[in-house]
């Protein structure tokens, strides 16, 4: 136990004294969080831009409640130039133009933007139907009561924090393990540890402990400023992310050991780790959601361990789900760790080739 404590302390001090390791493991991912959190702090559902030509009674005379809903969905500008309004729609500068021709509401839209035009058509259709119902003097038979499943505090920072934290944990564990193994082998430290009375379990345990401490530091560095200054609101079950983070640390630590087991140079190890982790981060939704990605890309994403970590942390940190949300991701990450550890053991070398 004394050897284990000494090795753990020495490895932790070595990491804290390595400024480059601190930057890439803590400061660099935090910069992404601050950048994306600032860029999307006021982001919401974009409004459709509509040009109103002349007087449009269904909009101008809409009840206050309908008018408030319109203001939330549409950004309406007024003009008397019908041709200029249609030209704006054709050029993509507006999603639609609307005018009244007697009792008929005319909506001009562009087929080039099918999504934007469909949103405007749906909104205007609802306005016209509401106006027709009001003109009939009959009370509505059915009403719509939309309810958001998340609380009103939902902000973009609550999506970015779990995903970027997952990327930081993957990068810190994999890069550190791969580089350390190559450097220790090159400098003969592995040979000296093997000849010393310190057992292999103590060496491995100390390295795992150091990786877990780093993951804990990354979690604190991400969550504290996100909660204090960026509006992140954690659910009551956020603490369930801690065992998930521990399992992810083991998974990516084992990946780094596998890479370091056959790499001959520190540059080669970090380059290969970057080659694996960076595409995985993009494919796992660490930087942007994959909802609009092709089906084959989403299927590929679901087999990646970083996707399991991101989804699990989002479920417990943002969506407030319980322990059932982390069981499958944890089992997957631990299985990945077992496979990578077996491969690392197979290719491990004490001395340079």
TrEMBL record:
Subcellular location: Membrane
Keywords: Membrane, Transmembrane, Transmembrane helix
GO molecular function: ABC-type transporter activity
ABC transmembrane type-2 domain: residues covered: 117-351
Entry's transmembrane regions: 164-183, 204-232, 238-259, 271-290, 326-348
Principal place of residence: membrane
Membrane topology: Multi-pass membrane protein
Residue ranges the record marks as coiled coil: none
InterPro entries, alphabetized: ABC-2_transporter, ABC2_TM, ABC2_TM_bact-type
Keyword check for Transmembrane: yes
Any one Gene Ontology cellular component term annotated for this protein: membrane
Protein name: ABC-2 type transport system permease protein
Organism the protein comes from: Mumia flava
